[in-house]
Structures are given as structure tokens and as C-alpha cells.
Fold this sequence. Notes:
Elements: H1 27-32, H2 48-60, E1 83-86, H3 88-96, E2 103-107, H4 114-125, E3 129-133, H5 135-141, E4 150-154, H6 162-171, E5 177-181, H7 187-199, E6 204-208, H8 217-222, E7 232-235, H9 238-247, E8 251-255, E9 261-262, E10 272-276, H10 285-290, E11 293-296, H11 308-324
Parallel strand pairs: 2-3, 5-6, 5-10, 6-7, 8-10, 8-11, 9-11
Antiparallel strand pairs: 1-4, 2-4
Helix pairs in contact: 3-4, 7-11
Amino acid sequence: MAGNSQRRGAVRKSGSKKGAVVGSGGKRRRGLEGRGATPPAEKRTKHPAAKRAAAKAKSTHGRPAGGGTSRFPGRRHHDDGPEWVLGRNPVVECLRAGVPATALYVAVGTENDDRLTESVRRAADTGIAILEVPRTDLDRFSANGLHQGVALQVPPYRYAHPDDLLDRARDSAAPALLVALDHISDPRNLGAVIRSVAAFGGHGVVIPQRRSASLTAVAWRTSAGAAARLPVARATNLTRTLKGWAAHGIQIVGLDAGGDITVDEFDGREPTVVVVGSEGKGLSRLVRESCDAVLSIPMAGPVESLNASVAAGVVLAEAARQRRA
């Protein structure tokens, strides 16, 4: 309509960029080009694996390296960084138990108290490096920032080989007394078992390499320093290790509430491996089939079962009693 041509915007002015243009400027061609192979997860910035790798790199770079002592080299597990014990009570308890730490970190401006004073004194007496660092450094080691201005660097435990435990038992005048833990998940139970084995004359403890509690500072503290005197081995395949020990004439005795015999019928004077099952499921099927006998502990009260470390202590005490007699 001729009259509408005078309305503003009815007719496009020359030189305007509004509307369709010739070609796409190469956008369609570039959109059809292949992008190459998908990069690994660690290289994709939004992927959780990349975030974990970045956090690990941030936590490991720029830390002072501590020299290992006892059975601990300078890293946390066999593939991780050092372990950090945070908080005043855990730190002073680790130092009291003789955990072979490599460094004590104290945040600048931390308010002093009896626990911190004792921690610094014990670290100085045992030759542990004492480092004063900014509080932000300790914040990086703690997910919630509850470090109370103090942290203890503990390198990981250096595990023995299962054959080393057998050699240790052979060199001893007493018959072999070993404990195998079938996927115990609580490090406190691991530490308590180590303490019981050392107390009742055992020669060592073996744990599976996977899906098992490892000897961290928590386990070390629970063992009350017994981990420094008793070897702990890691077995790639626990069932195969038990069968190998059985071939050397050692009886394999499992612990379970529904055992074949009671601890009263157990002969602990023979070379023995006591196998303790996990806290929830007990002995796994293959491990149970590898046992020569399965023991149960009679209960006088309404309690159905005992804690794994307590049950191991009962059997070890009975074996020690029989050997003394």
C-alpha cells in the first residue's frame, strides 16, 4: 500500500545489515568439520576427574618433602600423597603413640594450649621437623577447615610380603601364630588386632591389597605403637596366600558365629593362622572354604556376636594360654 511506505521502518534503508545476507561466512562448513578424538577425562575441565587431578596437583606441589622413618616412606598409600592428621587431640595422640611422622605443621598465630605445647615438645624430642606455615596451607589439607591450627604429616606404612611373615615364624622358637583379616574395613579394628597379636606372641598380620582398611595413622594410634614392632603384610590374593601357608603345614582357622567347633575345642599349640572376617559379612566364601576349621565363641549372655578385633583377641589369648601350659 502506497500510503504505508512512509511509515517508519516500512522500507529498508540501503546499507542496513538487517535481514538475510549472502552466505554463512563459513559457519556451516566449520560446523561440519570433525573435532578429533575425545580427550581423556583428566583433560576435560568440567569433568570430575579433571577437578580431582587438579586438586591432587595443587595439594602435592609446593609441600616440603619429609624423610621417611621406620616402615614409612614419604607418601600416603602406595599411590597417594602423605596422610595428614588434623586437630590437636588426634595429633598429640599420634605423637604419644610414637607414630613415625615426618613434620608437624603449626599455623601462624595459633593460640597455644597444653596439647599444642606437648605436641611441639614431643616432636622436638623425636627429631620431627616443626614448621610454621600460613593458616591457608592447613586449610588446603582439610575439607572443612577444622584443623585447629595444627597438622601432622605421616607417610604411609611399608608393608611386608606374606612370605616374610612365614620366615619370621620359622626363625622363632614358638610355632607360627598369624592373623589374616578378610576385608576388615575399620582401621581401628586393624589397629586393635595388631595390638592383640603383638600382646599374645603372634608373628604378624596379613591383609588383602584391595577393599581392606590400610595401616593409616588411625590404625597406628589404635595399635598403641605395636605396628612398629609387628610386621603387617599385604596379599594380592588372600585365598591363594592361605592355601600356600596350608601347604607348609599351618592350620587355617576361621572365626564365625556359626562355626563348626567352639574355641574350647581349638588346639592352639599347632602352627596356626586365625582368619577374621569382615565386620558385616564375616568370612567370604572362598576364604571360608580354605579354612581347615571354623571356630565360634560361646556366648553366656544375650549378645549374638563380638566385634572382629575382640573375637580375634579371645582366640589369640586362648592360643597363648595353651602354649604356656
